[in-house]
Write a structure and sequence with these properties.
Largest sheet of chain B: 2 strands, antiparallel
Number of helices of chain B: 15
Oligomer: heterodimer
CATH class of chain B: Mainly Alpha
Shape of chain B: globular
Number of domains of chain B: 1
Helix content of chain B: 55-70%
CATH topology of the largest domain in chain A: Immunoglobulin-like
Strand order of the largest sheet of chain B: 1-2
Strand content of chain A: 15-25%
Number of domains of chain A: 3
CATH topology of chain B: Cytochrome C Oxidase, Chain A
Structural class of chain B: mainly alpha
Radius of gyration of chain B: 23 Å
Shape of chain A: elongated
Distance between the termini of chain A: 57 Å
Number of strands of chain A: 14
Distance between the termini of chain B: 25 Å
CATH class of the largest domain in chain A: Mainly Beta
C-alpha cells in the first residue's frame, strides 16, 4: 500500500474487504469519496482561479457584479441536497444489513472486561484474548464462510468490538446485550489470492497436536475503557473448515475427555458438591440443587441479604453463580425447600447460609473449581432440567 | 497618543474590575490563548509519544490524562469561549454602533466564572483520575478512584454558566442596543453568526449543566442514573451529553464562519454575495444542530429507525454549510483580492473547512460510519472542522482586529510565514490521520499496532511544523506590541463600523455617532498611502 494508491479510494485507504458485507460498505465509501474529490477540486480550483484572476494589482479594481442572485443560490442549495439523498439511502440500507443478523448464525458469546476479551463458544470452550504460557489457546475462532454472530456483554464499563477487515463495530454496553455479525471467507494463505492485513498477521497456529491454517484479522476495543484500553486487542481466526475449528476448540477446551461442559460440571459436582447438596430428598445438610434445575428460567422470590426484603430474581446462570460465590446475598425462602430439614429449622424468613457455605470463598475448594469450573457446574445444573424435558 | 480604552485608566483594579467590553475581551483573549498554549503542549506530547508504537515517552495513565485534558481544555476552556468571549466581546458592540454590551457587570461576571471554572477543571488534575476523554462517558467516569471527575464536571458546569451569560448578553445587546439606522439586515454577518451562537449557548448549555449535576449526584450519593450497577443506563448519559455537545460544535464553528464572511468581503473589496442566505444559513444551522445529536451514537446499539432519522437530519445541516462556501467564492468573483495575513487565513479556512465538511459525509452515512466511528478518521474530521475551521478563523480574526485592539501593526512578512507553516503543518498532521482511521486505527490509544507507524510519524512531523508556525505567530504578535508600527483607523479597507473609530478605540467607542450604511459597500473607501490606511472619499473631500 502506498500513498499513490491512497488517492484512488477504498483500495488504498481501507483494509482489504474480508467479510461479505465489507464490499457493500466499500462501494458506498468510494461513491462518497469520488463526489468529495469532485467538489473539493471544484471549490479549490475556482478559489485558486479567482485568487489569480482578481488579485489586487495596479490598474485592477473590483468590478461590479450582482450581490445576490436567487436562481444561482437555489441551484447550489438544491443540487447538493439531491446528491446527498442516495448516499443517505444506501448508508441506511447498508446499516440495516450490518445490524440484522441472519437467523442461522453460529453464536459466540463475547465478554469484554478491563482489559481483555473472553470468548465463550457453543461447545463450552472459554478462550482469552492473548496467548500466555498458561493459556496457549486464545482468540476468537470462527468457521469459514458461515454467518457468525457475537453476543456482546460487559460486566462494568463500555467497550466496543471492532474488526476493521470486516467493517464491523458495535459497542459493548454494561447491563444489556448487544451483538454484531459477519461472514468471513477463508483463503488458503499459500494461494496467490490471499490478502493479509496487517502484514504480520499469523497464518498458522501451532498447538501441541498440530498446525492449524488460519486467516487472522485484528480485533480492537474502540471505546475508551481505561489504562489498558490500547492493549485490549486480539485476533479473529477464520479456520480452514468447520471441522478444523471444532477440533481446535476441543483441544483448547480440555474437558477431561468429556464432550460437553455439562458433563465436566457433573463430574466436578460429584467430586466437590454432592456430598452435601443432593438433587432431592430430605435429611441433608445443605440446599438441594434439583429445585434450581426445575425452576430454571423462572422467576422466584428471594430475600435480599442486604435489605432483608423480598426481591424477585430469575433462576439462571447469574443467580446460581452469585449464590455460590456469595451465599448471603440472596436467600431462598423457607418454603422453597422441603420443611423440616435440620439446617432450616431456626430460620425466620430466609435460608441462611451455614458456616461451611460462607467459607467457600477463598478456600482451596474454590481455587480447585475455578471460574471456568463454576461455569461447568452451572451448565450441569441447567442441563439436568433439559434432560428431564426430553 | 490620544486617550483610548487602554490608557483611559490605569492600575490593576482598573482592569480587574473593568466593565468595558473591550478590556474584558482582551482579558478573555489572554485567558483563552493561555489555555490554547497549555492544551497545545499536551497535544505535542501526545504526538511525540506516537513517533513509535510502544510506550516510550509517558506511561498509559499519563497518556490517558494528557489526551483527556487536551480535549477538555481545548473544548471547554479554549474553543467555546474563544471567538465569542475574546473577539466577540471586543468587536460586537463596536460593530453594532453601541457603547457597550447590554449588561456590562454580567459580562465581567462571565469572565470570572470562566476563571473559577478553569481553576476547578485544571485543579482536578491534582485530585487524579481524570482520564475518561473529554466526553466523560459513564460508567467509566463513575468508577472508584476517579475523584477528579467531580472537580472536572463541576468546572464544566460553571464554565457553562459563563457561556450562558455571554450568550444572554449578546442576544439582549443585539435586540436592544442597535442604534437608529442599524436594522437587522444592515448588521454585519459576524453579528448574525454571533447571534445564532448566543441562542445556542442559552438553550443548549443548561442540558450539560444538568447532566454534570446528575453525574455528581450519582457519584456522591450513589443514585442510579447512568451506572448499570445501580440500575442506571450508560447510553442515557451519551444522549444527554451529545444533546448539548452537538449544538456545542456549532457554538464553536458558527462564530468562525461569521469571521470568514467579514474577511472575504473586506479583502476582496467586494460586497458579500447572498447576504440574506448567509445570515439565514447561520440560523438554520443553529436550529438543525439541536436535532442531530444521535449521530455520535450509531454504534451504541441504537435502533435502525432512530439511526435513520438522525442520519437524515445530519445531512440537512450540511446544506446550509455548503451554501456559505459557495457564497464566499461568489464574493471573490470580480473582486480586488489582497493577500494580507487575515485573508490568507480565510483562504486556508475555505480549503480546510471544505475537507472537514466533505469528510463529514462519510460519517453521516450509516454503514460507512460503523467502520469509521471511534477511529482516527473521526479525530481527523473534527480537527479539520474545529482547528482547520474555528481556530484558523480565530487566527484570521485575531490578525484582522489586532491593529484595532492594540493600535499596532504586526510584521506582514512573518504573518505570512506563520500562516504558511500552520497551513502545511496542519494538513500533514491531520490528513495523515484520515488514512490512519480508514485503515482501522482506533482513537485514544496509548500504544498502537506496528502497521500504523509510518503514518503516525508523518502526523507527528506535521504537528511540530504546525507548532513552529504558531510559536512564530506568538512571537511577532507580542513583538508588535512594543515595536509595531502605529495602526491607522482602517488598515484593511473594512466598511463595518469598528473601522470608523480610532485604533485603539476610545473608551466610549465613538466620539461621534456613526452613520450606519451597508456594511459591505466599499465604494466610498480609498487607500491613503500617507497613513497606510483606508479613508472615506467623501470625508477626504470635505
Amino acid at each position: 500500500m502506498s500513498l499513490w494508491d491512497a488517492l484512488f479510494g477504498s483500495e488504498g485507504q481501507l483494509p482489504p474487504k474480508l467479510s461479505t458485507t465489507a464490499a457493500e460498505v466499500d462501494w458506498l465509501y468510494d461513491y462518497i469519496y469520488w463526489w468529495c474529490v469532485f467538489f473539493f477540486i471544484l471549490i479549490v480550483a475556482v478559489m485558486a482561479y479567482f485568487m489569480w484572476r482578481y488579485r489586487r494589482r495596479p490598474g485592477h479594481s473590483a468590478q461590479p457584479s450582482p450581490s445576490h442572485h436567487l436562481g444561482i443560490e437555489l441551484i447550489w442549495s438544491v443540487i447538493p441536497t439531491i446528491l446527498i439523498i442516495p448516499i443517505f439511502y444506501w448508508g441506511f440500507t447498508g446499516f440495516v444489513a450490518l445490524q440484522q443478523a441472519p437467523a442461522d448464525c453460529y453464536k459466540i458469546e463475547v465478554e469484554a472486561y478491563q482489559w481483555s476479551w473472553k470468548f465463550r463458544y457453543p461447545t463450552g470452550a472459554n478462550l482469552g484474548n492473548k496467548e500466555t504460557p498458561d493459556a496457549p489457546y486464545f482468540g476468537l475462532h470462527v468457521p469459514p464462510g458461515r454467518n457468525v454472530q457475537v453476543i456482546l456483554s460487559s460486566d462494568n464499563v463500555l467497550h466496543s468490538f471492532y474488526v476493521p477487515n470486516f467493517r464491523v463495530k458495535n459497542d459493548v454496553v454494561p447491563g444489556r446485550y448487544t451483538s454484531a455479525w459477519f461472514n468471513a471467507p477463508y483463503v488458503d494463505p499459500d494461494s496467490p489470492e490471499f490478502e493479509n492485513w496487517p502484514p504480520e498477521a499469523p497464518t498458522r497456529l501451532e498447538t501441541k497436536n498440530g498446525i492449524y491454517k488460519v486467516n487472522a484479522h485484528r480485533l480492537f476495543c474502540t471505546e475508551y475503557c481505561g489504562t489498558g484500553h490500547s492493549t485490549m486487542d486480539s485476533w479473529v481466526f477464520v479456520h480452514e473448515s468447520e471441522e478444523k475449528l471444532q477440533q481446535y476448540l476441543k483441544e483448547a477446551n480440555d474437558l477431561w475427555g468429556k464432550e460437553t461442559l455439562a458433563e465436566v460440571g457433573a463430574e466436578l459436582y460429584a467430586k466437590n458438591c454432592a456430598s452435601c447438596h443432593l438433587k432431592a430428598g430430605q435429611g441433608v445438610v445443605a440446599p438441594i440443587f434439583g429445585r434450581l434445575s426445575d425452576n430454571w428460567g423462572k422467576e422466584i422470590t428471594v430475600i435480599d441479604g442486604a435489605s432483608n426484603q423480598p426481591v424477585k430474581v430469575t433462576v439462571g446462570r447469574d443467580y446460581v453463580l452469585q449464590s455460590i460465590q456469595d451465599p448471603g446475598s440472596q436467600l431462598a425462602l423457607k418454603d422453597y425447600n422441603d420443611q423440616g430439614t435440620p439446617w432450616a429449622n431456626n430460620m425466620q424468613q430466609g435460608l441462611y447460609p451455614t458456616l461451611e457455605a460462607e467459607s467457600y470463598k477463598g478456600t482451596e475448594k474454590q481455587q480447585f473449581v475455578g471460574k471456568n469450573g463454576l461455569d461447568a457446574i452451572v451448565a450441569f445444573i441447567e442441563s439436568v432440567n433439559k434432560q428431564e424435558d426430553k | 497618543m490620544k486617550d483610548n480604552y487602554l490608557t483611559h485608566s490605569r492600575g490593576f483594579l482598573s482592569w480587574a474590575l473593568t466593565l468595558d467590553h473591550k478590556r474584558i475581551g482582551l482579558m478573555y483573549l489572554v485567558a483563552v490563548l493561555s489555555s490554547f498554549l497549555v492544551a497545545g503542549i499536551m497535544a505535542l506530547m501526545i504526538r511525540a509519544e506516537h513517533l513509535a508504537p510502544g510506550a516510550d515517552l509517558v506511561d498509559a495513565d499519563t497518556y490517558n490524562r494528557l489526551m483527556t485534558l487536551h480535549g477538555a481544555i481545548m473544548v471547554f476552556l479554549f474553543i467555546i469561549p474563544s471567538i465569542p468571549g475574546a473577539l466577540g466581546n471586543f468587536v460586537l458592540p463596536i460593530m453594532l454602533g453601541a457603547k457597550d454590551v447590554a449588561f456590562p457587570k454580567l459580562n465581567l461576571c462571565s469572565f470570572y466564572l470562566w476563571i473559577v471554572g478553569a481553576l476547578l477543571a485544571v485543579g482536578s488534575i491534582a485530585a487524579g483520575g481524570v482520564d475518561g476523554g473529554w466526553t466523560f462517558y459513564t460508567p467509566y467516569s463513575l468508577q472508584d478512584g476517579r475523584i477528579g471527575v467531580i472537580g472536572m464536571t463541576m468546572g464544566v458546569f460553571i464554565l457553562g454558566f459563563s457561556s450562558i451569560f455571554t450568550g444572554l448578553n449578546f442576544v439582549v445587546t443585539i435586540h436592544r442596543l442597535r442604534p437608529p439606522g442599524m436594522t437587522w439586515f444592515r448588521m454585519p454577518l459576524f453579528l448574525w453568526g454571533i447571534y445564532a451562537t448566543a441562542i445556542l449557548q442559552i438553550l443548549a448549555t443548561p442540558v450539560i449543566g444538568i447532566t454534570m449535576l446528575l453525574l455528581i449526584a450519582e457519584r456522591v450519593m450513589g443514585i442510579g442514573i447512568f451506572d448499570p450497577a445501580l440500575g442506571g443506563d450508560p447510553v442515557l448519559f451519551q444522549h444527554f451529553f451529545w444533546f448539548y455537545s452537538h449544538p456545542a460544535v456549532y457554538i464553536m464553528i458558527l462564530p468562525g464562519l461569521a469571521i470568514i464572511s467579514e474577511l472575504i468581503a473586506t479583502f476582496s473589496h467586494k460586497h458579500i454575495f447572498g447576504y440574506s442566505f448567509i445570515a439565514f444559513s447561520s440560523v438554520a444551522i443553529a436550529v438543525f444542530s439541536f436535532l442531530v445529536w444521535g449521530h455520535h451514537m450509531f454504534t451504541s446499539g441504537m435502533s435502525p429507525l432512530a439511526a435513520m432519522i438522525f442520519s437524515a437530519l445530519t445531512y440537512s445541516v450540511s446544506i446550509p454549510t455548503a451554501v456559505k462556501i459557495f457564497n464566499w467564492l461568489a464574493t471573490m468573483y470580480k473582486g480586488s483580492i489582497s493577500f494580507q495575513t487575515p485573508m490568507l487565513y480565510a483562504l486556508a479556512f475555505i480549503f480546510l473547512f471544505t475537507i472537514g465538511g466533505l469528510t463529514g459525509i462519510f460519517l453521516g452515512s450509516l454503514s460507512t460510519d460503523v467502520h469509521l466511528h471511534d477511529t482516527y478518521f473521526v479525530v481527523a474530521h473534527f480537527h479539520y472542522v474545529m482547528m482547520g475551521g474555528t481556530v484558523i478563523a480565530m487566527l484570521g480574526g485575531l490578525h484582522y482586529w489586532w491593529p484595532k485592539m492594540t493600535g499596532r501593526m504586526y510584521s506582514e512578512f512573518w504573518g505570512r510565514i506563520g500562516c504558511l507553516l500552520v497551513f502545511v503543518g496542519f494538513n500533514l498532521t491531520f490528513f495523515s490521520q484520515f488514512l490512519l482511521g480508514s485503515l482501522g486505527m482506533p482513537r485514544r490509544y496509548h500504544t498502537y499496532a506496528a502497521e500504523f507507524q509510518s503514518i503516525h510519524v508523518a502526523s507527528s512531523i506535521g504537528s511540530f511544523t504546525l507548532a513552529a508556525g504558531l510559536f512564530i505567530t506568538l512571537f511577532y504578535l507580542v513583538h508588535s506590541l512594543f515595536r509595531g508600527a502605529i495602526a491607522p483607523a482602517n488598515p484593511w479597507g473594512g466598511a463595518t463600523l469598528e473601522w470608523h473609530c480610532t485604533s485603539p478605540p476610545p473608551h466610549d467607542n465613538f466620539s461621534v455617532a456613526p452613520t450606519v450604511g451597508d456594511p459591505y459597500d466599499y465604494s466610498d473607501l480609498s487607500y491613503d498611502p500617507a497613513t497606510g490606511g483606508w479613508v472615506s472619499k467623501a470625508g477626504a473631500k470635505a
